[in-house]
Description:
GO terms for molecular function: beta-catenin binding; cadherin binding; calcium ion binding. Residues 1-77 form the Cadherin domain. The protein is of the alpha+beta class. 37% of the residues lie in helices and 23% in strands. A hairpin with a 6-residue loop joins strand 2 and strand 3 (31-33).
Amino acid sequence: DPDSGDNGLVLYSLVRGQTNEFDINEHTGQIFTVSVAGKAGTFNLEVQAADQGTRRLTAQTTVSVTVDSSSSSNIVMLVINQKINVVERNSAEVQRVLEDKLGWNVFVVNMDSKEVARKARSSTNETQVYIIAFDEDNQEVPAEDVKRSLREQRGAIELELQKVFAAPVSAAVGEAAAVPAPPERVAAIVLGVLLAAALGALLACVLLLLRRKRKHGKQDLVKKVEIMECIDNPWAADKNGSLKSLEKPEHMNN
């Protein structure tokens, strides 16, 4: 917008679409994900630009975002000696610094902290920032190339990040190259293990019941045979007076 003053101040917003999955930087118009874990496909977002003049003018356009569920081996971890809640608040500036110094389009895939406790978000002075870079042809930059460039530009990156955080910054390439499994995946693994255990227990119960049934079946068959033999020898009786399969008494042979 070539206007000056409030008429030239343009703010961006999402007016329709998956506003729970995406958000937009109202000053730059940059769209970023909020929560798309476990989701894939194309999302249509309606973006509005509006100036801040007395007679407010607006314009809208549709942005299609495609989320790929496949994993990537080109994700690189950058460890920054700042609290995770501070890094999250300045994620857009961190991304801008990395893009400026690396010369690629950089996206922050995830942020993590070594501490699991909630209080760690304001107490642990180390944040793991997972990034992926794309070249001008929108192709993923190999992880080794990203790591090499990060090491070469480390001094310049740290200097710019010091301006962002207003504090001394150390930014080192981490050893891990994979994004930590999201809670949904961990839950799926746990549920899978529990399901396997439950199926194993169920199978054991079924086998036990079949074994008992087979055993009782044999016993019933023996009893049936004994009863039939006793019927064939109605005069046979044991010492308790119950029918029993025995030879006929000697007086019967006479």
